[in-house]
Sequence to fold (112 residues):
Amino acid sequence: MKLLRCIIQPYKLDDLRAALETFGVKGMTIHEVKGHGRQKGHTEVYRGSEYHVSFMPKTMIEIAVPDEQAEPVISKIIETVRTGRIGDGKIFVSTLDDAIRIRTGERGPDAL
Fold:
């Protein structure tokens, strides 16, 4: 199993959720986060004063998928959220040793 941590632009969340439903992704965890990558923020003007915004608002999605589903899901995520501009985000892929559904006690891919 794989755990995908995707950091994306917040306005792409609904598009991504709809796209992943077509792959049978049954659940995801969403976090509102702030951060920066290579762009290191940007400068804004508010009421005539200029200030630097270091941390940009982002959305982090965590998705657990079976090994065979990981690459197609990753491809769909990229296809759905890519704009070609700075700040599109990142996907971090980790191996998931186990998953347990608390209600039933199912383990492994059955728990997803």
